[in-house]
């Protein structure tokens, strides 16, 4: 789990502008293909079956690779060959920037070296964040599930930037979805989505375009955090926690949900947008 | 073949939409979708579906209360609890109250339909995880 995408690093350090990053991301979207799509191109799957796998992917916890096999669509050796093709063809963000004329190859090599070094250091910090938290098991489990579900519903990769103990102060410009977890601990989990991600997540949940201001999108956000909360409780049961989620809700913007004090904030990046997860834990 | 009738009860319209989409062109037909437990019990009394898919965690009247009321109306009704929460406590409570089975969210379309097809073959009170 690393802290930042290379494209964000270049943007934040003034190496490229926002337009260049968007152009490169768009080039990636046009070029990079999912495994089922490559299977269609290689004549191993028909379009209908590929769409079925995409539909299942949106709501399951499995990878495209596993689904192609478990849904009986492809043999394991075909999936292995397709994965190699996908990997060879995959256009990484740095190469897309070079291809688009936004970055010289020599610059790419230099910045990539620096970026990798920073990433290695930050990874250690992130591990430290988890391990030194009193409730690190809960935070880690919920963070993992949040990453997984949000990535699946938005269709874009997400990374954790850091986890900070914070005073519960909240950012502007987010749609908040919250769930109270009760049992032998009591805490709130909230997910804060920026507007673009909010729309994408709603579409990912419902499979159709929805009005971001409407009830359907709000409902999808609540169901998103419900999936995270419920699965988190299930995931934590074998570790000795007896927890259950209460119904999810959508608090008013900027209204803190925690009654007193302790909160843990995770900042995450997802493509060009970002969102936050706040896990509020009261002292037991 | 006459389709088997299904009633879905979930406070999330997103889940109701997804389940209805999953069951399109299948041998199951959604004949009612309700977002409120109390209202759902009233509708159940009228329509008596073959299968009830009931969310566990709902605002207002909970899934457990709704389950008890449906079973009071028809002890033989086939009620499947559907929830993102799959802890042993939750599953045990639902099954011991009389739910036919337990399905943990999220689930895929194919797995979901297979699950419904196998309901009759499952022993009473069984659990299916995601």
Describe the protein's architecture and organization.
The complex is a heterodimer of chains A (284) and B (130). Chain A has 284 residues and is of the alpha+beta class. Chain A has two domains: 6-97, no CATH class; 133-281, 3-Layer(aba) Sandwich (Chemotaxis protein chec). Helix content of chain A is 53%, strand content 16%. Chain A has a six-stranded antiparallel beta sheet with strand order 1-5-6-3-2-4. In chain A, helix 8 (105-132) crosses helix 9, helix 9 (136-154) crosses helix 10 (195-206) and helix 9 (136-154) packs across helix 11 (215-236). Residues 254-259 of chain A have low confidence and may be disordered. Chain B is of the alpha/beta class and 130 residues long. In chain B, strands 2-1-3-4-5-6 form a six-stranded parallel beta sheet, sandwiched between helices. In chain B, helix 2 packs parallel to helix 3. Chain B is globular and about 30 Å long. Chain B starts with a strand and ends with a strand. Chain A binds chain B through residues 52, 55-56, 59-61, 67, 71, 205-207, 215-216, 219-220, 222-223, 226-231, 233-234, 237, 242-247, 249, and chain B through 11-15, 17-18, 21, 57-59, 83-90, 104-111, 130.
């Amino acid at each position: 789990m690393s802290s930042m995408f290379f494209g964000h690093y270049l943007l934040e350090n003034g190496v490229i502008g926002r337009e260049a990053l968007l152009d490169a991301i768009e080039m990636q979207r046009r070029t990079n293909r999912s495994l089922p799509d490559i299977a269609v191109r290689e004549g191993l799957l028909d379009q209908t079956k590929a769409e079925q796998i995409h539909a299942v992917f949106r709501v399951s916890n499995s990878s495209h690779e596993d689904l192609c096999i478990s849904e009986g669509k492809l043999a394991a050796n075909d999936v292995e060959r397709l994965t190699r093709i996908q990997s060879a063809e995959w256009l990484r963000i740095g190469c897309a920037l070079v291809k688009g004329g936004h970055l010289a190859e020599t610059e790419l090599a230099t910045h990539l070296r620096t970026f990798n070094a920073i990433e290695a250091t930050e990874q250690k910090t992130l591990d430290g964040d988890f391990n030194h938290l009193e409730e690190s098991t809960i935070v880690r489990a919920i963070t993992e599930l949040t990453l997984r579900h949000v990535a699946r519903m938005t269709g874009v990769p997400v990374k954790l930037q850091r986890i900070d103990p914070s005073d519960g102060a909240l950012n502007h410009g987010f749609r908040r979805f919250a769930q109270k977890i009760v049992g032998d601990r009591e805490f709130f989990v909230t997910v804060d989505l920026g507007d673009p991600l909010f729309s994408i997540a709603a579409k990912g949940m419902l499979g159709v375009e929805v009005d971001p201001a409407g009830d359907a999108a709000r409902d999808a956000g609540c169901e998103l955090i419900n999936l995270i909360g419920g699965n988190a409780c299930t995931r934590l049961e074998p570790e000795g926690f007896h927890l259950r989620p209460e119904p999810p809700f959508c608090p008013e913007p900027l209204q803190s949900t925690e009654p007193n004090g302790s909160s843990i904030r995770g900042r995450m990046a997802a493509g060009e947008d970002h969102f936050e997860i706040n896990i509020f834990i009261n002292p037991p | 073949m006459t389709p088997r009738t299904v009633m879905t009860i979930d406070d999330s319209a997103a889940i109701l939409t997804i389940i209805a989409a999953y069951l399109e062109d299948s041998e199951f037909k959604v004949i009612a979708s309700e977002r409120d437990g109390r209202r759902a019990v009233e509708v159940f009394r009228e329509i008596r579906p073959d299968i009830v898919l009931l969310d566990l965690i709902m605002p207002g009247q909970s899934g457990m209360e709704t389950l008890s009321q449906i079973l009071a109306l028809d002890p033989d009704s086939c009620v499947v609890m559907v929830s993102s929460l799959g802890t042993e406590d939750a599953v045990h409570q639902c099954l011991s109250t009389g739910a036919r089975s337990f399905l943990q969210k999220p689930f895929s379309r194919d797995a979901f339909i297979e699950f419904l097809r196998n309901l009759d073959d499952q022993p009473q009170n069984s659990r299916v995880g995601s």
